[in-house]
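Worked example 4.2. Below are the chains of a multi-component assembly; read each line carefully before continuing.
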Amino acid sequence: MSEPERQHLTPNQRAWRRFRAHRAAVISTWYLAFLLIAIVAWPVVLKCSTANFAHMHDPDQLSDAQFVHPSLQHWFGTDFHGRDLFSRVLYGAQISLMVGIFGAGVSLVIGVLWGAVAGYVGGRLDGFLMRIVDILYSLPSIIFVIVLLSTLGEILKQSHYVTSSPRLAGQLRVILLFVGLGAISWLTMARIVRGEVLSLRSRAFVDAGRVLGAGNRRILFWHIIPNIMGVVITYLALTMPSIILYESFLSYLGLGVQPPMASWGTLMVEGVSQINPIRIYWWLILFPSGVLVTTLMALNFLGDGLRDAWDVKGK
Amino acid sequence: MYFVKRLMYAVPLLLIISALAFGLVRMAPGSPFDRERVPASPEIERQLKAKYHLDEPVIKQYGRYLNDLLHGDFGVSTKYRNHTVNDIIEQALPVSMLLGGLAFCFAMAIGLPVGFITAARKGQWPDVIGGLLSLLTVCIPSFVIAPLLILDFSVKWNLLPVGLWGTPARMILPTLALGMFFVGKVARLFREGMISAMQSEYVRAARAKGLGETTLLLKHACRLAILPVVSFAGPMLADLLTGSFIVENIFQIPGIGIFFVNSTSNRDYTMEVGLALLYAILLVLLNLLVDFIYTLLDPRVKYE
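Applying the procedure described above to all two chains together yields the following structure tokens:
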């Protein structure tokens, strides 16, 4: 609008330019990248450092140093069991971020396919698929997730893999959590994608493709879905924070990962449960919540930046 | 006419939801009688099951349940044996509805002005600060906010009571804790709606005709900008009115939110299905209301 563009830019290049102009989104991207590096690098640092350092920062290592204030040895202080909080926050980040990424993945695969097929085929199938979404929407999500978690959990508990190894049982619980949260994450995406596909279906370029002899599958996957990727990526960035937040609520209900494993949610719940009128271990609340809140804000800013970049209309 | 048709469509939807909830709940392992203090002898358990007709085939149970439902009877709770689900809903729902209604009003009363100001001053410091604050409230879980509110307002400054329900003073903190998230949500949605409304043709036309900026924003842009908030408000109100487990749990409020979680972990079959239906009915009605308000606000919207 402002100045005539000198060279020809593809839509993606233009989007990239707009994204870079969005300062909060760029800072958020750097922040998230930095966080990811820290999460990946910290276990490596512990492995390579001296035995003493590694021992002191082992996230599962109990010690007598209860409730130590943040200091040079323990940057984020220690918790009730004398465990180093900095390590626990970074290890907990693995679970929290994985939950978010997995939920986003489910909504990318199931949500996009579901909505695209419904919108493209239309008619009876559309009605059928979208009624299923409506029904799942109308179930209280907390009842749905708890029933799903306990049903699948019981089935898995009876299989002999789990009874033989407790460590595997813990990991299976994490996977269950992923599935439970993934099951509710794709509904909004399906609705949005359906609406987008519906409006693209009757556009001229689709007719042109059909005239040139492209089959339904080719039109859907090569012509329509690439055109809605901007919307999809934007909503993926906005789905992640809501799933991470939901995980923290499940942790509050005691349905999240089981100790000694940790997620940001369980760490925050631990910190909050230590509040009493006499003293408050502020670092137990501030650091886990601080990291969670800044991450969620960064993801939201990222989503806003992507939305502006691709000029996605608000729903 | 359209809305009558929509109401008719809601009936099969609710039927399917009841069937799904019914099946899902019984698919879950365990039974309502697993958590007795003393493990029941097989005979007692058999009799309990016979009393609640749990020994019949599921289809027959469901038929019986539907029949009761037609008479407005949600059945007897399998956990709180002396109470019907109707009793519990009657007792707990008004509390949750009051709390949810207050939180809804709070969210609208703060969220809409904040959204308006941030949109009107887009890119300037009120926008930056307001946007940051409203995003912050969306990102902090209520189970962190609520204890901190109690710690400051009740314990340190002794201004407000710590918990429980009844007097207006007791309602302030739970309303804040529950409504905070939605304040941010409403503000962000309204800001977005305002910005896209201000770019639309009819606002430009009104501006070209020399309308003052204040009238333009308040009378013309707002009307369209409120639409995203309205469509979010339907599901949001359904969530708020059926209570929040977390806030009710922290403040020890005898609302219905707690039953959503407890009924599921107690395998309280009738309670779970009853609550799922209650939620679904509320959601359907509120979505209908949303669509109706749409036609009032935007005359271009026509339903066939």
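Take a moment to check your reading of the output against the notes. The radius of gyration of chain A is 23 Å. Chain A has a mean pLDDT of 82.
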